Amino acid sequence: MFNIANQLTLIRIVFIPLLVVIYYTPFEWRFLASAALFGLAGITDALDGYIARKYNLTTPFGAFLDPVADKLMVAVALAVLIESHSNIWFTLPATVIICREIVISALREWMAELGERATVAVSVVGKIKTTLQIIAIVVLLMVNPKGYPLINTVGYVAIYAAAILTLWSMFVYLKAAWPTLKGHSETDEEKGDT
């Protein structure tokens, strides 16, 4: 269960509180250090998937933990940036990204229960969106939000592009799942009510 691919995923989860602690230290190097840590997390994300596929190390534990680690890392980084940028221009795309992750995670879980998980598998658009998110977050973490307007502008453009792709990929997933969603009976819905 704790093969090298899963260990890389667990390292990514350990990075989450570390990112928050580093970002809120009183030192000027905190920006570059937190950006480097998030970038390293992005590299481990690509690496653990590659290793798992290449060496046939995929496990149910890894299949569960990998997307959870990704979403937690992105959500926490965006939360930190929402607080430090504290404006609607950043909060809006960040909120779109976080909300989309919740919707798609719930959709995937529900589709998996119905044996239709492959219907909402990760698409090319989703991978491009993830790459843009990582770039945007690294760029925005690496500088003090009160300075460096040009770098902040690059980060904002990237986060808006990621938010647009986020909505597009959500539409793609919902469209793929729509026949199953539409065919869901009222009896099944009542069983799912809590």
3D structure, described in words:
The protein has 194 residues and is mainly alpha-helical. The protein has a single domain, classed as Four Helix Bundle (Hemerythrin (Met), subunit A) (Up-down Bundle), CATH 1.20.120.1760. 80% of the residues lie in helices and 0% in strands. The protein is built from 7 helices and no strands.
Per-chain topology:
Elements: H1 4-23, H2 30-54, H3 60-85, H4 88-113, H5 124-141, H6 149-182, H7 186-192
Helix pairs in contact: 1-2, 1-3, 2-3, 2-5, 3-4, 3-5, 4-6, 5-6
Distance between the termini: 33 Å
Mean pLDDT: 87
Low-confidence stretches: none
Number of helices: 7
Major sheet, described briefly?
Answer: none
In the CATH hierarchy, the architecture is Up-down Bundle
Briefly note the CATH topology name.
Four Helix Bundle (Hemerythrin (Met), subunit A)
**For the record, what CATH class applies?**
Mainly Alpha
Number of domains: 1
Helix and strand sequence: HHHHHHH
What structural class do helix, strand and pairing data support?
mainly alpha
What is the H level of CATH, i.e. the homologous superfamily? CDP-alcohol phosphotransferase transmembrane (TM) domain
